[in-house]
Amino acid sequence: MKILGISALNHDASLTLLDNNEILYAGHTERYSGKKFDPDLTHRIFADCFQYGYPDKVVFFERPYLKKARQLYAGQYNEVFSRMNLPSKYLKSFLPHKISYIQHHTSHACASYFTSPYDEACIVVIDAIGEWETCTIWYAYGGHLEKRYSIRYPNSLGLWYSAMTQRLGLKPQEDEYILMGMAGWGTQDHKLKNSIREDFFNDSDKPIDLKDNLHRGCLDWNPEYYPDDDSDDWKFNIAANVQWICEEEIRKVFSLARQLVPETDNCVYMGGVALNCVANSIIAQRYYPKLWILPNPGDAGSSLGCAAYVYGEHVNWKSPFTGYEITGRYPRKKVLNELLQGNIVGVANGRAEFGPRALGNRSLLADPRGDDIKDRVNEIKHRQKFRPFAPSVLEEHAHEIFDMPVKKSQFMQFTAPCKYPDKYPAICHVDNTSRVQTVSMDDNPGYYKLIKEFYEKTGCPMVLNTSLNVKGKPIVNSYLGGVGFSKKYNVKVF
Q1: Is-contact 419 411, C-beta < 8 A?
Q2: pLDDT band at 480 (very low <50, low <70, confident <90, very high)
Q3: Angstrom distance (rounded) from CA 452 to CA 459
Q4: What are the counts of helices (DSSP H) followed by strands (DSSP E) for the chain?
Q5: Domain 116-293, what architecture?
Q6: Superfamily (CATH) of domain 1-111+297-318
Q7: What angle do CA 71, 77, 82 make, to 5 degrees?
Q8: Which of 284, 275, 102 has the alpha carbon at shortest distance from 178?
């Protein structure tokens, strides 16, 4: 039976097509529309998806009327009375099928559990908001899921982090990863942290116990000290302490998970907050060394989750490369030649990654040893200087160079201190950490061989890897997109 899972009408719309336990296709609308975090589906993504078959069943990642009840409570009356945001009406132009609906956090939980290597696991989901739930803890075994804890709107760590993102002049529900990068440039200060906590959180041992509903942000909030000059240092300090509080709240959740699910040491983690790779390292080190995070833990990953729920068993997770395919052999010889000449080079080859991070098939690559590389890449991508870059390192050499919190990190989900920051300045953040991607032959043979050959020529077992896009634009999806990027930014793309 072919099952089509759909996530749409919120942000970062996606489709997943399962044929029993095989993932035939999983991709993002934004890669087709060119609109970052596009909430809408397009006929192009349906056409590409249906190359792999036509569904027998269609399932949506949340329950629309349950969501409308929460929107009514929140005073979002335009959303409540609009019929255009009803999936049954919205999807008529794409599909004639009857649609089934799964609760938002159930879709998240199933996406993580049914792709994991574990039959028995604790499941933790933390996000901004589903219909009502913002954090859930589950026990899963033998394909069955048992919910043991729930936090409900308006208590939401994701909404609070988004509100702080907006307060720092960034886009909420889009730029949270920028706040995470800014945090490394700031100073953790107990007095400031406690002041921020006192402004937003109740004095409670319960996780994510907020004083106010932050759905509409907190633009009128001023920190304990506010600068008289035009310096942005205060933003970095606020970011550092916001990240610190976020980590504290996540520790509360996972400490509780340990208590509520004592049956297993395995854990799977899902929801938008699971994109916080700094916090993920803490979870792996302190609570769950056996931690699985889907490379697409946000709402887009829920198209896979709701389809997996209908199937009811583990799916055959092989790799994150499930999207649009650019045919042809991996261009490692051409890319290697550019890297050895000190050039920045793009790769657009194979199937696109399912998730927000480029993992070698839609990547901008460079030698991580150059002092000027970081500035050169930032210039191409129009990025702020405080944003970190990731290393793609041969799995067998990762522990030689980084203090890894996990054995391997195929999807850039964890940060690790670099043992030799002076040797590899381009991939080290200001705090000398790196968001590491480990690469093995099983993960991506073409990409692994490229890095291996680069290592044999240079003695450096890694390359700098960032996504093949510029700030505010989706990752390049197609061959023509790669050609366009090459011409516009004067970077060779193969």
Answers
A1: no
A2: very high
A3: 10
A4: 17, 19
A5: 2-Layer Sandwich (3.30)
A6: ATPase, nucleotide binding domain (3.30.420.40)
A7: 95
A8: 275
